[in-house]
Amino acid sequence: MSDVAQDPKELSGEEIEARASLIDTNTDIDYKEAGRLIFRSAAYIRFFMWRYIAKFLLKLGSYALPLALIPWPVKILTDHVILGRPIEEATGYPDYMMPLVNALHGASVIEILFWLGVIGITLVIAIGSYTTGYEDETSAGLAQGQDYASQVENKIHGGYSTAGGLYGLLEFKLDIRLVQTLNHMLRAQLFSRIGSLSMTKLEDQRIGDSIYRVMYDAPQINEIFYEITHTPIISILLYIQAMATVMNAYPNTPEIFWMTAAIFPVWVVLSGFFSRVVRRRGQLARAAGAVTTSTIEEGMDNVLAVQSLGGNKQEKARFDTDSGESFSRYRSVTLMWIIILNLGGVISTLVQVLFVVFVITRVIDGTMTPGDLAALMVYLGYLRGPALALGILWLRLQDNVAGMRRVFAMLDLPAEADRGSTELPTIEQGVTIRGAGLVYPDGRRALTDVDLDARVGQIVAFVGPTGSGKTSLAYLIPRFHEATEGEVRIDGYDVNEVTLESLRGQITYVFQETQLFSDSIADNIRYGKPDATQEEVEQVAQIAGVHEFISRLPEGYDTKLGTSSGSKLSVGQKQRISIARGLLRDSKILILDEPTSALDPETEKYLVKALHVAARDRLVIIIAHRLSTIAQADKIVFLEGGRLIEQGSHAELMARQDGHYRAFVNLQMHTDQ
N or C terminus: which one in the chain shows less Cβ crowding within 10 Å? Predict the structure, then answer.
């Protein structure tokens, strides 16, 4: 632990969940909700119906074939080779094995061994099994830990078959393809939904928690996808097959049925007692893991601030605390399963002891042979296993339910409302705002009674002190936020009544915080217009004043910005690339949030001149504080306290002796001096 780490404080479940996400708060679910989540997860079967059925039949066969075939060569070997009993006196075989037994009549011990060897080689090649204890399996996976995150790769990429040989290889390949396709579908749906959330929702959602849901929670669908039908149906069929075979071979031993059947109600009781605990602890372990992921993401994203402020020790302490909490929560899950499995294991062991004593007693009194003991020990597993699987099924699914609750909670969040049904035609006139107000979901008022006209062909500057509502007003135009009062119209169309695609397809918003991707500079510039030519890319780069710098780089426009989103560039260079990207996109409204804040005076002058050229056939809105940028605008809109106080040209507003804008400019000029 860090030498500055504070004494760890046990966090409550509510505190952990609140730190994980502010938009997913209904985390404690009951039996009814758990059942709904299970069946909702199982509904994904419909997308892969034929592959799912094929997997089901192959999985059933991988159990049923060894169950039908494996015990009897063991009995033949024990009774007629090792003990030397004449095979003509063989008893205790099911009817379907009698043709093989009859075919061996008159055979010597060596001949019996030879044919058992042939049968064994055939079984090994076909299903990877010959006798109990020598079954092969087909699987692939990476080394993993006990936490959810390290198990994910095997959940989404690993394959498995209880059979070996050619049969197991076929099932294994089908399993891999099915699991990967299923997980890709669910992850893609979840990723798409997160990207479609409104800006208000996204502001309340931690990135690390979203990553954890996509990466680590979504793969929990695997077990539900398979187990909801595979376990009940296959377990019942295998139990019936095993019991029918045993009763056919040993019709006078019904005790075997009752001893193994007793396991089922014991596990049902344990499942009912522990199911809520399993769900709750699983939820908290995942929430704690998401908090740790968020801490890592935030620390890496703000690494420059951490280093410049000497915050490495504090960040390490914060990570130590969150990581320790995550480990603690998962240890509680592991401890819980140890208790549950050991309680059930005691019952299963008692059943096994009773079973062995019962069969040995029959061997001693001569009603069964030692070969019967060998065969029935195999069938004990096939009788006890299905009963155990059915009894524990509900309990096993509860941990998966905790993960799927987090997935579906995010999928069920309403996407950004696209109530519009009208396609917005090509913008020709501009924006009209009347009586617009904006109140955030938490009750904060950002705008009050705003009236504004902004026309294509103009450069309009939104000006005002910090917190005056400039960005909030700009957000109303592309409908990042919806006005809670009044109306916002573009060419007479209410922005709430046009489709988001047609609206935002004609509006480009260049945010104050530069957003670049870890790709080449050219691809970053053409992000909004992927089919743009190199000539077009260089043209807008020249307008934004960044072409000369890019050309001096060894790889020019092909320079990769790296995983830190442009750490190779200065703030001003990144800002100019972002502006070039906005200029390249064919949109009729261009909104620039503080576009010149990181530019030198010469580059700023050049950019403002270029924006006047761009404004000939589009509306350019600039949110700015620098007077040198503001003064060049055709219209200045001055806001204060969420209200539009004044609007007009720089000369008109400066002519007002007691004007708010004039006071703002004088204050800035005085400060600059």
Answer: C
